[in-house]
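## Example record

The block below lists the input lines for one assembly entry, exactly as stored, with component labels intact.
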Amino acid sequence: MKTVFFTGKGGVGKSTLSATLAWQLAEKGFRVLAVSIDPAHNLGDIYGKKLSFKKKKFSEHLYLQEINLEKAADEYVKANMNLMREIYGYLQSFNMDKYFSILKYSPGIEEYAALTALEKILTSERENFDYIVFDTPPTGLTLHIFALPGITLSWLERLIKIRQEILKKRYTIHNIRGKYEAKGVPLVYDEKDDNVIKKLYELQERYSLVLSLLQGKNNAVSVVFNPDYLSLKESQRLLTGLSDLGLPVQGAFNNKMTEKSGEIAEMVEETLKKDHSSLTIQRVPYRADSMQEGYKLPCDITLPFL
Amino acid sequence: MSLQIFKTIKDFISGMDYVHREKAASITLWEEKELENIFTILLMGSFSGIPAPPAFIAAELFPLLTSELKIFNERAENSFDTLAEMTGILSID
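Predicted structure tokens for the full assembly:
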């Protein structure tokens, strides 16, 4: 299975190109799943379908799916609140549960919700499809989502080390004293019995898999931009961010080209290639009637991904 | 008579052995407690304003740490003079 993420500044045409690539690959006979994780959710509008988390068949080989980040964040917070209430029943008596209801606006929650949904799709659908094409949110949020597995793994590594050290010391105390308990509660000292370290290992395995899928040769991150100065600046930041995260950029699209954009288009492409010489840029012409069957662009964009 | 002396020496040596083992256990216990504290404080870092792992790691681990969090809470309440405790364990006068 190959994955393709379309990234770029808001409004450059990520959804249109995602829809186009998914459609063209499906027309070539590949089994394709197109997923929107962009809160704007233009993918459904382009295909003229109302999408949800449950995948919907669009054509013989093409399926569509939408991740509602706000809903995913809500569900995550709800699950956490229930968990917290169960463990710390007294929170309700202090009205502390109101604090948790605003958690969904906390930094990182939306990224986590997106990453969890991504992980679910990548692990459960990789056998069912040849390609999964993602339409992503604008640059900032996308980079945060891509950075999360690496950050999580580095934290997990630290926590595992501390937990291993705790268990080692408990084992020593157990060996000297014959037992080890605190406040009458026996404390485990063997990794086999410690659910905390088992959970940490499980999380480490899950996020290592996501990171290896994202950084692997079967993943492509494609950059979409328009022939204008602001788009150039954001694409430069995006390319630097992707390279810092070790993500493979494959294919860049200079979208919405018109006859008038020749000179500025040249400048934008040259500037981008100055720092990223291996970048292959394809020009995609502006289509005025893109409201109807917007996924049927007249040029083939599958080449960088075959 | 010689049997009595032998028993006294044996008791003395096993007593010494016990004291040394207990001292080693106390130091290890203190280190272990501190590591547990660090582990818990790191997980709850976002509540106390220190750099914290992504909140969901804590959320995934909290249900498994219920009894340890209770112990942590009790220790926090009873820790009036941790410096004295530490100097006691390390035999610093």
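Chain B has one domain: 2-89. The interface with chain A takes residues 21-22, 24-25, 28-29, 31-32, 35-36, 38-39, 42-43, 53-57, 59-68, 70-71, 74 of chain B (CB under 8 Å).
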